[in-house]
Amino acid sequence: MSIKIAITGSHRLLLSTAIFSSMVAFAVLPQTVIAATTSPVAVSAIATAQINNFTTSEWLKGTWRGSAGFSIPATAQNKAAFKKGVQVRLADGQVRTINAVYFSGAHMSPMLSGSTLDASKTGYPHSVSALSNSAVQPPVSAPAAAPAASTSAAHSSAINNYTNNDWLNGVWRKSAGFSIPTSTANTAAFKPGASVKLADGQVRQITAIYTSGQNMSVMLAGSTLGGNLGYPNKLYAATPSTVAPSAPAAPSAPAAPVVTAPSAPASKPAMTVALNSFNGKDFLGGIYLSSPGISVQDTEANRAAFHKGAQVRFANGQIRTVNMVYRFGGNMTVLLDGAQVNGNEVGYPRTISVSSTGFSSQPAAGSGNVNSPADNAAPANPINLIGINLAGAEFGAGEALPGKYTIHYIYPGEDDFKRYANLNMKLVRLPFRWERIQPKLNSDLNGAEVTRLMATLDHAKKHNIQVILDMHNYYRYYDKLIASKDVPISAFADSWTRIAKKVVNHPAVYGYGLMNEPHATNGKWPDAALAAAKAIRMVDSKRWIYVAGDRWSSAFHWPSYNIQLINDPWMRDPKNNLVYEAHLYLDADYSGKYRDPKAVYDPMEGVKRAKPFVEWLTKYKLRGFIGEHGAPDFSPSAIVATDNLLKYLNQNCIPSTYWAGGPWWGEYALALDVKSGKSRPQLPILLKHAANKSCGAIGPLK
Question: Is Hydrolase one of the keywords (predicted)?
Fold first, then answer.
């Protein structure tokens, strides 16, 4: 967008932990549930938490409407106390058992046994207490693996900060494993057969070590692990204590099966099960879209196989543990641990395997299974995933165009490029106005403006920054639509031909952004984009061409407005180095104006708005780019949502440029550069993700 006056937009508060919101059509509570206990045994409260004051279509006073559950702040104390298997005492005195806990940003949702809760008796402003069966020791929950003996950590290692299609924060996605540096100490401490302690306290046995250059992959027994156990946590080499181990007590809650004796055969063979062919709002190929889960038929065999604690193995080899099962109308919805499952990769017509005794986390010898984790180290020439819009040259569009330099508009200076280079944000989207660089159609470019542009590119070159040239015109030239009699498509293509000829040999040019946020194009944008892209390709055969989408390039609305954009086979040819550009803002009208300063944003709102675009790219095997996204400094929830958005984009190798930096922003709430120089809360999130160097090419292109 152009200058976005930052006040935030209204938005419903929906926690991503509320995974059951869309499941009504396919799932209800199990027919047999654990009754609520109304006369608790002698227990003591180990923690008390205030119920969150959420009331929406899914929540009533912080209690979940769909089934028994409540929302509380995700503080360190609450995380330690409110775990699966722990009993809680509600405000009305009844005691329930926690079946599962879901986290979303600053909040957590413990889900309980028994029927739904009465919000008037147990919801806000009431509190809830986590109980201990002993006045001394709180109940212990073993989320994945319980050690057979007490252990102590003798050596620890940092976990590598890898996040891509195979890794999440240094945790191997396809089976249990971590990536750590190949140091002498690590090589000595981490060996097959030894034990390791994870950040959450569980202990696993090392089954294999893969070494690749400066990194080593430590593969473990048991089910796959969550990225929350990875970077910036450490991995500990565990050694048995001097106390002779005794038979371990049964954990207080079912735990994920752990392979402690690889040679022992499974007591029951795994069963192959067909996924339901469900597609729509809630499911894709039988894969649940709102949280990790699947849908299968409600048969006697499936009821026996899919129980809490069982493991399922998908067609791509990843293994998950069953957390909950719901039955309704001849079908079962099976909720799993871990990250969201990709229905395009593993959904119907593929099958899954289910086992009560677990699967080996290593491929069988001679199976031909794909790469070891060591083959997926950081690329030699990683792309820049996080960048910035350095605005200014597009300013003053409301004045009489083309306007006067330094009065109506300004180009960013060398200090701007130096600052962001030092911050490791070396991808810059540079907006400019068509009317200024070419005041008259089909005529020579304006010499003074070209000089300013080239000088700006020189600044970028000096500081090793890649520049995407962004024609910031919204599909208009002097407010007249492209593809009209006043501004024919041929004139649009002509402008890009002339611009490309001027900059084709400049090393700072990374790509050409055809048009910022086309809208109300009368369906002519696909033809205009094709003509301009081909015109550039006649001049420059190598650099990226960024093709924006109609409807203001909205990522969320992308599939509904941009199917025709790739009707011509030329626009789908990967040899043409095309990248499709979407924009994404979190406010209610998607504009980025953030008019409502009191709005609170779902932590996963950015991911929800990006998914339609990312899934469209994946479907057609194309590359993508988020040219604009931004969060206001007055909204902590928007900044949390931005963090999750960037994590999701980076996992798909989709670069993004934040809106915005550069001169003349005053105190604009989204800007990283403000006149007062006050701290910008958005910046640490951007810098965290800018450190990710796991992608060697623009994705997803699967």
Answer: yes
Q: Residue 586 carries which DSSP code?
A: -
Residue 629 to residue 642: CA distance in whole angstroms: 8
Q: For residues 533 and 474, what is the distance between their CA atoms, to the nearest angstrom? A: 17
Phi then psi for 107, rounded to 5 degrees? -130, 160
- 342 phi/psi in degrees, rounded to 5: -90, 110
Residue that has been written with the tokens 């040259």 in this structure: 393
pLDDT value of residue 530: 98
Residues in the chain predicted with pLDDT less than 50, given as ranges, are 2-42, 134-153, 240-267, 361-376
DSSP letters spanning 144-204? S---SS-EEEEEEEEPP---SSSEETTEESSSSEEEEE--HHHHHH--TT-EEE-TTS-EE
Whether the Cβ atoms of residue 163 and residue 232 lie closer than 8 Å to each other: no
Identified catalytic residue from 58, 394, 435, 517? 517
Residues 6+ apart with CB under 8 A from 425: 384, 386, 387, 388, 686, 687, 690
Q: Return the bridge partners of 50, or none.
A: 127
Tokens of 480: 């007249």
CB atoms within 10 A of CB 611: 16
Q: What span, in angstroms and rounded, lies between the C-alpha atoms of 580 and 617?
A: 8
Residues 6+ apart with CB under 8 A from 371: 166
The bridge status of strand 95-104 relative to strand 107-112 is: antiparallel
Whether 517 sits among the annotated catalytic residues: the reply is: yes
Which residues contact residue 65 at a Cβ distance below 8 angstroms, ignoring those fewer than 6 apart?
Answer: 57, 58, 59, 116
What pLDDT is recorded for position 303? 87
CB 429 within 8 A of CB 456: no
Q: Does the active-site annotation cover 628?
A: yes
Task: Tell me the CA distances in angstroms from 513 to 38, 401, 499, 556, 579, one per residue in order.
Answer: 64, 21, 12, 20, 9
CA distances from 504 to 18, 376, 453, 543, 578 (A): 51, 34, 13, 9, 16
Residue the block writes with tokens 């409807």 = 551
Judged on CB neighbours under 10 Å (0-12, 13-18, 19+), 415 is exposed
Query: 420, 426, 422, 416: which is closest to 393 by C-alpha?
Result: 416
* Phi and psi at residue 143, to the nearest 5°: -70, -25
Structure tokens at 692: 């990710």
Q: Residue 290: CA atoms inside 13 Å, Cβ hemisphere, count?
A: 19
Q: For residue 57, give both structure tokens.
A: 């279509």
pLDDT at 377: 52
- One DSSP character per residue, 109-151 reads EEEESSSPP-HHHHSTT-EEEEEESSSSS-----SS---SS-E
> What are the Cα distances from residue 623, in Å, to 539, 572, 653?
22, 10, 9
> For position 239, what pLDDT does the model report?
52
Model pLDDT for residues 259-302, shown as the tens digit of each residue: 222 333 334 567 888 888 887 777 888 898 877 899 998 888 88
Radius of gyration for the chain, computed over Cα atoms and rounded to the nearest angstrom: 28
Q: What are 465's two structure tokens?
A: 């920054």
DSSP state string for 43-99: -EEEEEEEPP---SSSEETTEESSSSBB-EE--HHHHHHS-TT-EEE-TTS-EEEEE
Q: Name 186's Cβ contacts closer than 8 Å, sequence gap at least 6.
A: 155, 157, 180, 216
Q: Round to whole Å and give the CA distance between 10 and 598.
A: 8
